[in-house]
Amino acid sequence: MPDRATIDMESWVCPAPLRGVPNIVMGHGGGGAMTGELIEHLFLPAFGPAADSQLSDSAVLAVGEVRLAFSTDSFVVKPTTFPGGTIGDLAVNGTVNDLAMSGAAPLAMSTAFILEEGFRLDELAPIAEAMGAAASAAGVKLVTGDTKVVDMGHGDGVYLNTSGIGVLDRHTDIRPQRASVGDAVIVSGDIGEHGIAVMSCRDGLEFATAVTSDTAPLHGLVAAMLGTGVDLHALRDPTRGGVAAALNEIARTAGVGIELVERALPIPAAVRDACGLLGLDPLYVANEGKLLAVVPADDADQILEAMRDHPLGAQATVIGHCVADHPGMLVTRTALGGTRVVDLPIGEQLPRIC
To answer: Which residues form the PurM-like C-terminal domain (predicted)?
Structure first.
């Protein structure tokens, strides 16, 4: 790692609060612009030629005649148990989904527990059990792992780190660079549920209607989509930063504009109400069991039929298209006929939701 004195922070182009700030802040872990700037201006230069340039959720590696997907993730959700799930099943499903977004069938995972001294064993056991049950349901083996303990007061009970390996068909080529003008943008179901579910059990928050996390493994849904034979251009699971962050990434990477139809966005009433109460935009709220698909417009109906035949895609719908206008930008067409820019979030509206 280079000495801080050798890093020219004045050359950074990120909007505040990154410029001139010498310390890590919560926004650096939010999956938005601050995360991207940290990777681009600190990690990649520090890693040098050892760094891979693709920067995808899962790397695709060729090992002889076999193509593998490899992914790693860390989970620091607070609280560790929330409506619809725990940090344990969230970790398994999140890793499975990162692999699935490249079209891979997940095979095996590692599990690392970072435990705080004093954390109760009767709280840890259900988390571990949920992790095992989720792995069994996804058909994934937990094959290696690690356990560390930090001093009391230096953690929030338990953090999890996972890595996953999956295998891809040699003809599968799913990546954001392939999004093209004219492509349809599809979401597999209602958005915003996970982030609001986690917020609903934070201190001082209470919603009139219960919202349950959508955490789920998506590889079966992706397999159904691949089974149609349609050339899937790009897939993303809109986790940190929500639909807005995922589609901004695709637009910028592919150099296309993406235009959403506001009326087509599947936002449950309970999520909309909670976001209104908290002053949040549902497009930025995290999901853990939904995917975004960018596919040729002529094949959208075929993909929708396959998705709707799967339990996790029953509410799949087209929410927009890739366009030639405003390349690299995401906009929504409002009910009044206007448009608004949906920019990449700087940090994270809802910290510690995954």
So the answer is: 181-326
